[in-house]
Amino acid sequence: MKRIINVGLDVHRDSITIAAITSYGEMLLEKKIKNHWPQLKKTLNNLFTQYPKAKIQCCYEAGPTGFGLARSINKEGNMNCIVAAPGKLPKRVDRIKTDRRDALTLARHLILGEISRVMIPTEEDEETREILRYRKVQRKSLKRYKQQLNAMLLRHEYKYDGKTAWSKRHKTWIRKLQFSSTTYSLLRDRYLIQIEQLEQEIYHFDKKIELISENERYKESTKRLTLLRGIGTLTAMSFCAEIGDFNRFQNAKGFMAYLGLVPSEYSSGMKIVKGGITKQGNKELRRLLIESAWHYFLPHQRKKMPDEKTKTKNENANLYHMYVEKADNRLYRKKYRLSVTNRKNNKVVAAAIARELAGFIWGIMTDNIN
Q: What is the percentage of the chain residues whose pLDDT exceeds 90?
């Protein structure tokens, strides 16, 4: 049996603290080096020199340093690296925290098998994530500028009486406003310039995301996901880039739990208490899914399928269309039962629909559609 060397890495921007122990707890190495891949590689290879028949297994916590280090280690044929989910590591009870202790703790968790792994994305997926996250930041900036301009207008007692805010008519109304000072006019103009620039930026990246969705890596996946009501290209691309392989979840319940959409529970003895959703896992995907769930509050209309003209020619397309119709019917019935029969709050209903929609997403992406 090969000796396994468990290596905990406490990774920071400028340094890496290494703790290497055997499966029996024997300390082999404890060292702090610069965060520089050639130096880390040399240190790990020195372990092979001392223990040529050993297998090296490394681990570090997911964080701002990204996944490049894990990919570099995994490219070496004689090493393996996993990335731990920080929020799911066992909590320590002591009040002493050092880099050395953190690295040693990770190595010990490796031995005990207590590490909840984070999927290491491909370089293509990581590039797509960065584009999606940049667009999200721009959307937040746009919302903030609009709120600030609205607040300034309200302070000067200007109220728009139209139905649709930020339409062409609304912007024209803002431009024609007369202020008592040229300073206020200047500020109004600067706000409008920033808003229009951000809108152009977001439009440009929306087009770029649509082009990326046509790549071989994403084309089939986005095509399937956008069949479901409430899911457009942006949401589909976010799921593809963040999840990667949907088959890593054994069942739909596991996928729902990953998104933090299952009820929390605190039970002891005969007392069982269930609360709101856990809100664990990927916050952005959960937000997108709940936004999609609100589409089921609209009147139930049959969704037009893109491949409808070729339904009789493509057996797989027929199965997907039947699956989507099944999802629509089930989720609309659930919305009616919770809202009308049980009179639940709409936010609670949206979360419940999002949970079941997550199950249908897992099904259509793993071909569990029977």
A: 78
